[in-house]
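Q: I have 470 residues here and want to know how they pack in 3D. Can you give me a structure?
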Amino acid sequence: MTPAARLAAAASVLDSIAQGRQPAEAVLKAWGGANRYAGSKDRRAIADQVYKVLRARGRLVWAMGGREDGRALVIGALSLIDGLSLEEIEALHSGDGYGPKPLSKQERSRISMTGDEVPGWVAAGLPEFVVEDFRNTFGDRWAEEAAGLMLPRAPIDLRVNLAKATVDEVEVELREAGLSPERTPWSATGLRLQSEPPPNVQALEAFKQGRIEIQDEGSQIVSWLAGVRPGMTVVDYCAGGGGKTLGLAMQGLAVGASRVEAVAEPEKIWTPTGWVDAPKGKAKAASVARAEGRLIACDVVQKRLDNIRPRLARAGVEAELIHLGPNGGGVEDIVGQADVVFVDAPCTGSGTWRRKPEDAWRLKPEDVDRMHSLQTAILARAAKLVKPGGRLVYVTCSMLRVENEASVDAFEEDHPSFEPVAIADALGASTFTDAGRAKLPELALGHRLRLSPATTGTDGFFAAVYERQA
């Protein structure tokens, strides 16, 4: 493909992203499948252009006079981000072949302007309605936090499954595979790979055999706040894709990898379409980590629970899966029985915008309010499962106060029997590094902890920790 044809393709992909709700990654993959003539270098160049535009979308829409179509955004990026001259942009818009048609008079005018003073929200790259929230949360640092969230491409963090391997062993294995892993600073189980060039983690033998999982270090940190130990009854109340379920299982097994037992060749195996008979002579015996206690993963969507099964099997751990009713039904037998209830609450996902910048421009104020109401209801239901002396951990991957401080403020007002646990007192697990135990309390406000790309080099997370007194 010519450079001009790549630009036209990028504009088309951007329009498809704007018209639906699919992740940008899925739209790009679908485009590649439908346009087999595009080689790997073409697809990579188109993806780079798409993500470049998505990260700067607010600024580009403003620069192009309010236009939001893919063509306008690509033209704006060529000028404002790539620094091309008007003549160079016109050369890429000759209309020849599969390239974009020539610039209009209005388009030439927009990219020829010297530019008025850029509004603060445009310069920060945030949706306008969340800027006040960022100002209230971060004060003078709000623009730095916004830039950290929207601009850089995130690294790939891995969590080592300590029931199957040590971090040292996996680090050596990854280096032998030609990668350059680094230790994560706060989580003792984490390894970090740079996003350039993008590693194909799922093709690694370490991934296939369950020795590693893809999990941002921030997600690991908030999981470790649960303080899971062998013998506990642990509930992952909003399990979702199961990443934190696996982390909670591993934390409970970290001090006892000897509990990994060989099991007989299975009669049936799990596939994405359900359980099927195992092919004779091809089904391998597995190793399963037998936990001294119960790990229960809950969700209101059965498909999410089904998707956890192969991840559990690959990791070699066990968990009970419970499909919750719309009002939290299905867990009546464990009311007041759980040592730990972990609530990774539904949220806007604003803490992951560096990975999914398209989500920033889909977010509406009413979405944030709806999430707050949902979170307070879920917390109230989940709290009933905690036994006296048990721990409740509330987590979001949001950067917004309405979903974080406001939600736990409401919970604390209605649940005085849940005593806050200082973050400094929740860092005893061996899965934290010494640096993590020293630094994270400095970032906490009592029992509340905020993580962000600009401050901790992680995705954005919020966590609050409680202990039930009666």
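Q: Anything worth noting?
A: Residues 255-264, 269-275 have pLDDT under 50 and may be disordered. The CA atoms of residues 64 and 110 lie 6 Å apart.
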